[in-house]
Amino acid sequence: MPEEELKESHMKDLNDILGMASRMQEEVQKAQAELDNVEVEGVAGGGLVKVRASAKGRIIGLSIDDSLVVPADKGMMEDLIVAAFNDARAKADEAANAEMSKLTSGLPLPPGFKLPF
């Protein structure tokens, strides 16, 4: 193969790779935007406190059972709210990881490799 044809071939390969990377970045950005529409619910105290959040971690709502609204139980209620937020955050991370793994499942990435975008 003449040198000029070889250079053109490599440029075409490089352009193909860059095009694939650009499309992948667009897909990842789209998937990350859609994560805000995935809703999870964190629960604490056997359902006495519930937090709804998006898979991106945005808090959507908070529900506190009426039985908890007792001034003497304020400290316990605050602890349960923190636990519910943490439970929602863990579920949001799981949902986000599941969505992103669907997107990257066909890519030949080395173990532990994280996409930069």
Structural summary, described in words:
The protein has a three-stranded antiparallel sheet with strand order 1-2-3. The protein has one domain (3-104): Ybab, Chain: A. 54% of the residues lie in helices and 15% in strands. The longest helix is centred in the N-terminal third of the chain and has 32 residues, at 3-34. The protein is α+β, with helices and mostly antiparallel strands. The protein is built from two helices and three strands, in the order H-E-E-E-H. The protein has helices at residues 3-34, 74-104, and strands at 39-44, 49-54, 59-64.
Rg, rounded, reads 23 Å
Domain count, please report it.
1
Strand order of the largest sheet: 1-2-3
**Structural class given helices, strands, pairing?**
alpha+beta
Q: Would you spell out the secondary-structure blueprint of this structure?
A:
Layout: H1 3-34, E1 39-44, E2 49-54, E3 59-64, H2 74-104
Antiparallel strand pairs: 1-2, 2-3
Helix pairs in contact: 1-2
Provide a quick synopsis of the model.
This protein is an alpha+beta fold and about 120 residues long. The chain contains two helices and three strands.
